[in-house]
Amino acid sequence: MPSIGNCHALSRAGRHRAGRRDALPGRDRAPLDVLLVHHDAGTRVRLQASIELEGHTCRLAPDVREAWDLHRARRADVIVCAMDLPDGDGLWLCRRVRADEADLAEGAYTHFILLARPEAARSSGADAGVDDCLLEPVDATLLQARLASIARVSTVLHALAQQNTALRRDSEASFRLARVDPLTGIANRLRLSEDIAVLWAQARRYGRSCCAALCDVDWFKSYNDAYGHLAGDQVLRRVVRAIRGELRRSDVMYRYGGEEFLVLLPEESTGEAGAAMDRVRHAVEAMCIATPAGRGVVTISVGVAAMGPRDEDPQRWLARADQALYAAKAKGRNRVEVVEAASKPRAS
């Protein structure tokens, strides 16, 4: 039976070992997934015990083929591999690991420790991508120290990779939000300026047709004055849903300003675009949203213009759509006016 002094010593040693294992995942380093590749069963058992004593997990493989299969099934944080194996060598395995990492996500890196006898050590290990080389027979304490260093570095790299992913996600979300109208959920003027430049260049280069339709909610100011801006905002959202419900997937709708919306209709002639926007006009009218002062229901006026050879830039093209919209307003509202490239308007 041990003495009281020995019992206290054993208790302190046990607390010390437990403290090392408990500190591993929570403080400055995280446990590693280690893949140990060695042809000698006794060496595998000895090194596995020293690796797991430090709180790491350890998988075992006796040769290159099984090691590669295990690594492909679950990428190891560290591979500790003998130089000479029954079906190949550690350098070949290291090259395969490095080639595979090129297709993995950012932050996915496997540290490779090569085990070699002094007479078998080769300078070509660095060319293969080996991170470290330990001489055989391996000093278990030295291996533990190497793994502790790798764990600290891996913890930092993992945290940086997570931060980069979060920053990239936030940046992408901010990019999208900056191009969406917060009230209606459709694209805004910033998105329009980007899209129309691309559309314009493609149409000019490949001779593609495209029409722009500028829509305006009739008598909207009087609706706002009578029912308030919250009710007006709800009307704008309903109008947007009605318009989008009649468009093709290739058509794009933008909040142009206030109660004005722009629709780009690629690969459509003025006749096709005019007919499409007249269906849109009917869909808005069919909602039967009552207006003040006995003006009936909410309607829209639409001006349509085709991209023409005389248009020097997209602004000239949209200006002609705006002229067609004014013509629709002047002729009584709740109608579609189409202007050809020659700038001669006609009612659809």
Short description:
By secondary structure, the chain is an alpha/beta fold. The chain folds into two domains: 31-170, Rossmann fold; 189-347, Reverse transcriptase/Diguanylate cyclase domain (Alpha-Beta Plaits), CATH 3.30.70.270.
Distance between the termini: 106 Å
- H/E element sequence: HEHEHEEEHEHEHHEHHEEHEHEE
Q: What does the overall shape look like?
A: elongated
Residue share in β-strands: 15-25%
Largest sheet: 6 strands, mixed
Helix content: 40-55%
CATH topology of the largest domain: Alpha-Beta Plaits
CATH architecture of the largest domain: 2-Layer Sandwich
The side-by-side strand order for the widest beta sheet comes to: 9-10-8-11-12-13
What's the CATH class label of the largest domain? Alpha Beta
The total count of strands amounts to 13
What is the CATH superfamily classification of the largest domain? Answer: Reverse transcriptase/Diguanylate cyclase domain
Average pLDDT for all residues: 85
Structure, described:
The longest helix is centred in the middle third of the chain and has 38 residues, at 140-177. This protein folds into two domains: 31-170, Response regulator (Rossmann fold), CATH 3.40.50; 189-347, Reverse transcriptase/Diguanylate cyclase domain (Alpha-Beta Plaits, 2-Layer Sandwich). The protein has eleven helices and 13 strands. Helix 8 (220-227) packs across helix 9. With 348 residues, the chain is an alpha/beta fold. It is 51% helix and 18% strand.
